Amino acid sequence: MSAAAHNHGHDNDHGHDHEHHHKDTFITKYIFSIDHKMISKQYLITGIIMGVIGVGMSMLFRMQIAWPEESFKIFNVLLGDKFAPNGVMTNETYLALITIHGTIMVFFVLTAGLSGTFSNLLIPLQIGARDMASGFLNMISYWLFFLSSVVMVISLFVESGPASAGWTIYPPLSALPQAISGSGMGMTLWLVSMAIFIASSLLGSLNYVVTVINLRTKGMSMTRLPLTVWTFFITAIIGIVSFPVLLSAALMLIMDRSFGTSFFLSDIYLAGEVLNYQGGSPVLFEHLFWFLGHPEVYIVILPAMGLVSEILATNSRKPIFGYRAMIMSVLAIAFLSTIVWGHHMFISGMNPFLGSVFTFTTLLIAIPSAVKAFNWITTLWKGNLQMNPAMLFSIGMVSTFITGGLTGIILGDSTLDINVHDTYFVIAHFHLVMGISALYGMFAGIYHWFPKMFGRMLNKNLGYVHFWVTAVCAYGVFFPMHFIGMAGLPRRYYTNTNFPLFDDLANVNVIITTFALVGGVFQLVFLYNFFSSIFYGKKTVQNPWKSNTLEWTAPVEHIHGNWPGEIPEVHRWAYDYSKPGHDEDFVPQNVPMKPGEEVLHH
To answer: Where is the segment annotated Disordered (predicted)?
Structure first.
């Protein structure tokens, strides 16, 4: 502990110097801030803006699938004559919309919006640190994220159209600028944006890891950390391991596109003309992409799991069930997530033996996931449940994680996967298990930690409306997709009218789109609640949820350095709820042990 204690003293002096020396101007406070709390708000608000764009796109292309060839005034207004002549969406536009929708939701909303917001807000506050290990690098990581968001949005306005090779950007579509209109400048900007995004992600992740290892307050051992910090810590490590692989894939793709190499191209004919590429392989790109792409789904879902674990324990008024098993399952998921990527490639001509290896590792990852699900359910069992919006979204996340995860067992098995690969069944699976679950975790986190971020409360009744409409619409959209997927409906087709085989499924697509439009529009309730509460919400008390973790011991008014005097010292784990022998049903981590008080073995 000596190093931590030493840091602790040093940080104190630093915190005091800090208060005397400079007065923040608007620019240093809100724009180029090095305070982790401000940076987390910047991440959150940027993520919300990107989310509005991503969800808006999905509503547009769902209209196209439900009513193909129809003319819509809104297409004309939003997409213009070039991309929707006379209000009818072209197939290139459809491909571009699903590509950018996938990219924005996976990277810009769920990776940066979730990890960037909550890792930044909670790591220093929950481990008892004055700030991140490097405030300057933290600021740079946000600004790189902002820059990559801007480049991605700019790519929508390129004359030839944005990237259109799907969010997985497989070559040769993404590697030959002349392949389709979306393979030109839009694709180049996509690659530039992702390269900047990866740099941002790596800087952030390194900062999180160093902060958790080096800056814990006195008494905060690794087994006293809240599960939120554990998940952010492991998520950052997965990011450091896997993101550089995507960066190398993107750089090689840029080389293929602009400098005449052929890493991913071989023996290609375009309109009857033989192109001068030999020796590359598009399957190599798939390996590199999915080596990031699969850990990526855990980079997205683990922070949501951490937030949900914390919120379920707080609002059940009882300790989280199986604390150590939860940590072990996060470590197991982190390890296994790096050796399952091949299950995205069962029909790429992979050797069947290799397919069976990937099937085995993929089915193994169901075990730690199930451990988490059972532990959440057991935490809720016989608890004194406080049904606030954060709690509802957390329970919703457990629900979608289980229902979405069950279909993963089918897709992880090479023999079964071949039948539904690239159908709507896959879309149903991953939207439930990672898209909706991670979004629920994010909403739960926002409802729970909003008072910590902004010093005000969100409107509870609007929160209830937001939850119930979102929950019904999310299942309304993704549940029927399992059935049209099993009926063979392929994904990424902008119309199915040419296949009489699928005529009977047209009505189902109309139902799905109706749910999607209602659910999308109702997110305006959340946006109104969020932005109006920042200014007009009810002022919060210091510890509104009667929670045990250290962030609720810091004053409501934000100061750079988090605590005005001494940093609190930690005497117990984070989940002493309803502990016998105490007057209150919660005991914050900085309350010393009573003589004879037993330590609950977690």
So the answer is: 1-20
Q: Tokens representing 472? A: 């019904």
Q: Kind of pairing, strands 273-274 and 269-270?
A: antiparallel
Give CA angle at 238 (142, 44), nearest 5°: 30
Please give the single-letter amino acid code of residue 253.
L
pTM: 0.94
Name residue 274's beta-bridge partners: 269
Q: 601 Cβ partners below 8 Å, 6+ apart?
A: none
Quote the CA–CA distance of 394 and 386 in Å, as a whole number: 12
Which of 231, 402, 254 is CA-nearest to residue 329?
231
User: For 502-519, what is each residue's pLDDT tens digit?
Assistant: 999 999 999 999 999 999
Query: pLDDT, tens digit, for every residue of 180-213?
Result: 899 999 999 999 999 999 999 999 999 999 999 9
Residue 175 CA: distances (Å) to CA of 128, 280, 462: 48, 11, 47
Neighbours of 251 (CB within 10 A): 13
Distances (CA, A) of 507 to 387, 467, 497: 36, 27, 12
Whats the size of the chain, residue-wise? Answer: 602
Residue 223 per-residue DSSP state: G
H-assigned helices in 457-505: 460-486
Q: 494 and 89 in contact (C-beta within 8 Å)? A: yes
User: Does the bond joining 172 to the residue before it have cis omega, within 30 degrees of 0?
Assistant: yes
Phi, psi of 270 (to 5 degrees): -125, 115
DSSP reduced 3-state for 586: strand
pLDDT, tens digit, 9 for 90 and up, residues 412-427: 999 999 999 999 999 9
Using a 10 angstrom Cβ sphere, with 0-12 exposed, 13-18 middle and 19 or more buried, the burial of residue 594 is exposed
Q: Which residues sit opposite 539 in a β-bridge?
A: 456
- What is the C-alpha to C-alpha distance for residues 60 and 300, in angstroms, rounded to an integer? 25
Rounded CA separation 481/471 (Å):
16
Report phi then psi at 273, rounded to 5.
-95, 135
369-to-292, 337, 376, 424 alpha-carbon distances in Å? 19, 11, 11, 23
